[in-house]
Fold Angiotensin-converting enzyme.
Amino acid sequence: MGTTGFWIVLLCTFTITSTSLGASSNNRDISAKYVSGDNPDEAEGFEFLQTYDKRASQECYLSVLSNWAYATNLTEENKQNLLERSLVYAEFQKEAWKNATSFAWKQFKNPSTRRLFKFLSILGTAALPTEKLKELNEISASMEDTYSTSKICPYSLQVVITDESENLDDDKSSSEEENCTLSLEPDITRILKKSQNYDELAYVWKAWRDSSGKKIRKRYERFVELSNDAARLNGFADMGEMWRESYESDTFLEDLENLWKQLLPLYENLHAYVRRKLISKYGNDKIRPDGPIPAHLLGNMWAQDWAGVQEFTEPYPGKPSLDVTPQMVEQNMTALDMFNISEEFFSSLGLKEMPPPFWEHSVIEKPTDREIVCHASAWDFCNGKDYRIKQCTDITMQDLITVHHEMGHIEYYLQYADQPSLFREGANPGFHEAVGDVLALSVSTPKHLKAISLLNEIADDPEGDINYLYSIALDKISFLPFGYLMDLWRWGIFSGNTSVEEMNTKWWELRLKYQGVCPPVKRTEEDFDPGAKYHIPGNTPYIRYFVSFVIQFQFHKALCEAAGHEGPLYKCDIYQSKEAGKLLSQVLQLGSSKPWTEAMKIMTGGKTNKMDAAPIIEYFDPLIQWLKEQNKNYTLGWTSNDPTICP
Ligand code: KAW
Ligand code: ZN
């Protein structure tokens, strides 16, 4: 999360802005894209940018500070401060926009100067009249608040309540409330991962949606209207189109669809295999052999990654487990230890260490004395000094990977710190999401885990390799359709192709079509299930993760080649390779100063400037062959007549 102009608005939930632009006295069209004026003086334009940069960094600092204060302590006072600060920041942005768009910048000679003006000429939500902007900011803050403070009652209490529901007295409601304190992180997440009780899982799955998404529905409808108003004032058809602009590509939608088509066979084979294992566990009265998988049985609240089913679905059981969570707990590892492990990997590549303010100010454990936004994030305070992570770290292998993910964001910040503020962004949002994950691909290898004493013994044989690839597939392949459909859904809402009366049904149509999952209890338009996933109330675009999951394998392959790795891609560990570190750093240092296609070209040594599914397919190839063999006498894919309830 950072804060400068349009590109930031796309990244940061609350760094939104404005007052009435209509008052601007000149006749520049405020509802055109990339507005420019008639001042041809490039030297003056350059000077303006220098002044802008200093002010922008200061304003950004104050804005991010108020965001941080609220996100790490969800009080009414902090919310009011944030809302006020957002309006001040919007004023600054509008002022900057007015000045910037007086220049005939499209005729400027210097390409970097043109690019800076291009970024500045999109105002973002600050284009809204003040009243609407205020309303948008308030809705954003309140949706995030509802999501982040949502709690549910334990299943055990539910059983008691239904058993004794006839003779309950007044004491019940108070004892019920006292016990209804389960939060998503860590309680509910742990239940989803660990419980193998069909009914308990269905209860928790529904209770979470009742207490989060359902409550947000009405506010989200208004939020969409206001967001679209803003997008139109910026010259876009709707907010979905405005979001997609950060990829600077005319073929983005086609490219995504093509990638998905190439990856579908991998997903279908994993889906069919896991479905069979789940039928063995839960029975064929619960799951059809050619049907979708009930969404609550995959070990994750959104069925977005399936690591939770690893233990009982492993291809070759009885080998050393690849989930090192027990070792971490046994070693009494702390959140701080996990952050130190991650930092050590970055420095082994010759990359930058986390600066002292990072260690001083980051929140890496869930506080017990206040409510915070637990969903992990990485923050750039725009002053070249202050960088922080906020994470309610649980002592699990999955969270160790998340620590690397978040630290990847900080490393990107540190690498592009010398760029002008407008270029302190990822080459595209998917690049930002990919950095930490690329390192985590090396960290997760059995050899590396053994080297850092998290595994005692490794199964260095073909069966062990399949187990390993399978465990990574449960993180990466399972995620792909979810990473794709989140924004397919949102783009449909923003464009109006999906009407508000069918928001939830459409969600389940996409969940069925792409993921092949179904809800364990009937869903209706009273519910709002997308709102039960952080990025919807948090207003964070999601296609970046789909992009990241594809390109991180391109990066992994390129860095492994730089490191001189030989042999299969999945065995590569770039630990301590200064060559790999140098290449990565070259790309990160660019920030968004060049279109991402150029960054991709540098990363791949000129081989391609596109997103390419070939490396992820290559990485998983032995597993794909194995799964195909396992599935040869079984149905691939799924059918269902009604996406809003499991058949
Ligand atoms: C995922 C990603 C990597 C590995 C495993 C994964 N499993 C699932 C995901 C996708 C996604 C998720 O949980 O559904 N991951 C995250 O949300 C991690 C959080 C984040 O680092 O991406 C965070 C989200 C966020 C964005 C804006 C406001 C608040 C939270 N993004 C950043 O902190 C961030 C930092 C710099 C630039 C852009 C984003
Ligand atoms: Zn991230």
